[in-house]
Amino acid sequence: xxxxxxxxxxxxxxxxxxxxxxxxxxxxxxxxxxxxxxxxxxxxxxxxxxxxxxxxxxxxxxxxxxxxxxxxxxxxxxxxxxxxxxxxxxxxxxxxxxxxxxxxxxxxxxxxxxxxxxxxxxxxxxxxxxxxxxxxxxxxxxxxxxxxxxxxxxxxxxxxxxxxxxxxxxxxxxxxxxxxxxxxxxxxxxxxxxxxxxxxxxxxxxxxxxxxxxxxxxxxxxxxxxxxxxxxxxxxxxxxxxxxxxxxxxxxxxxxxxxxxxxxxxxxxxxxxxxxxxxxxxxxxxxxxxxxxxxxxxxxxxxxxxxxxxxxxxxxxxxxxxxxxxxxxxxxxxxxxxxxxxxx
Length: 344
Hints:
344 residues; Arc Repressor Mutant, subunit A; 22% strand; 7-stranded antiparallel β-sheet; 3-stranded parallel β-sheet; 3 domains
């Protein structure tokens, strides 16, 4: 009987306060109870979903389920980069973020997938000392950021792959299956995370890759130096996206359950000229032989050189007969050059 009475008192006390921590509750209960007994009962009320628990900094607060507006909308935590368990990090943040529990199952699974993939990258690739993560509800968006003080995502790929610049590393990253640890990673994490987001941003040591799927378009910028890597992910909390649909989109054959199809935005390899050379074509097609189907998107490309078209649509195709190339968004001039080199 006491436990039921105490539960009622706790609910009434939190209701009057609007938002209360254990100290507030202890001081305002109509009858004296031990702090341990109160904490135990609050945990029971939380499991019964009669109260909602949120951690803000060092403090734990409780509110009624219909007063989530009183809780903080952004949770930030810092972790040392030592044996990071990405699922535990997500559970710790989401446990302090009631707005995550209110998401649909599909959106929640997307946020969890993207967040854990980015945290895993810090643990496995960054060589960072620490990592700062945050997750927030901002209007109709769910946003998370992962920041580390490590080697830098673009610089790491550049060095491990023997590339000439961070720009070449960004180009490789947008193709998919790019990893510096091929024995333990498939190179899918950043690629699929950037595709499922509404907006995905990765920034490191003066370069920013922005994938805006609401347009859709991809942007690369030179920005002020940022030591380490900063990743930002945004998605509408009412999004109708499904992870399964995304994975199926990158299957060369329906039902193959393989990441064997990719889509590359050709303009990222333009290097400031509308006339694209054979060397740029080689850079574009580097490492794409691992896919069975390559979609080349010529959005924004008005013309290409014969050497470029020949390298892609004759030389590469001849050297890799098991890989199919499809060109989309080709203007009349680009289409003419492609057909010209494909002519027997």
